[in-house]
Amino acid sequence: MSVKKADVLVITPHPDDAEFGVAGTVAKWVAEGKEVVYAVCTNGDKGTSDYSVKPEELAVTREREQLCAAEVLGVREVIFLRHSDQSLEDTPEFRKEIVRLIRTFQPDIVVSSDPYRRYIWHRDHRIVGRVVLDAVFPYARDHLAYPDLLSEGLKPHKVKEVWLWTIADNINHRADITDTFQIKLKALRCHESQAGNDRLPDLEERLRQWAKDRAEGTEYELAEAFHREEILW
Hints:
Layout: E1 8-12, H1 17-31, E2 36-42, H2 55-73, E3 77-83, H3 92-105, E4 109-113, H4 123-139, E5 161-165, E6 173-176, H5 181-189, H6 192-195, H7 203-215, E7 223-230
Parallel strand pairs: 1-2, 1-4, 2-3, 4-5
Antiparallel strand pairs: 5-7, 6-7
Helix pairs in contact: 1-5, 2-5, 3-4
C-alpha cells in the first residue's frame, strides 16, 4: 500500500458494527468535507441463525451489504481484511495489519469498538478495540515498531484522537446525529441479513430510542456516544 491520506479511519470488527455505532457521526463528518475510510476486520461469516446459509455465501452477502452502507454514508473506501468471525486474536500479525492501515491512511481520528465493556461482549469487539488502541499507541507512532513497513513507504504516524463507540460504560463524548439519523437508518437497512424487516421490524423505533437515550443530558435530540481520547504523546 502507498499512503492515501484520510481524515478518519473507522476500524470495525464486523460488517454492520460501524453503522450501529458511528454511522450518524460518519455522515456528519462527510457532510463537513472530511474523508472517511472503513476497515472491516472480519467477513461476517457466522452472523446468522439460518442453518441453510453457508458461511462463504454469507461472507459475500455481508461484504456487498457493507459496500452499500458505505455508499449511502459517503465513505471513500472500504478495506476488507476478511478474517473469519470469532477467529481474531491479539497477535503481532493482526496488530501489524492495523498499524499498516494507520500508516497508509494517516488519519487524525481513529474510530473503533470499546474493548472495555464489562462482562458480556462479543470477543471480536474486545480484541479489535484492544489491538486498535495498541496499534495507535505506540506501534504506529514508533519507527522501530515493524521497521519493515518503512521499506513499503509507510512512515510512522501519530493519531490525534481515538473514538470508541460504546453502549454505556465510560462515555465521555456525545455527537449530535439529529440531522443525520435518517442517513444512519438508511445505511443500516443495507445490512438486510442482519437488520432487515424480518429480523428487526421495529428498527427505526428502537434506533431512535437508543439515540434519544444517548442524547440525555445534552441539548441534542439524538446522539451517538463514545469514549474519546486525545493522544498527547
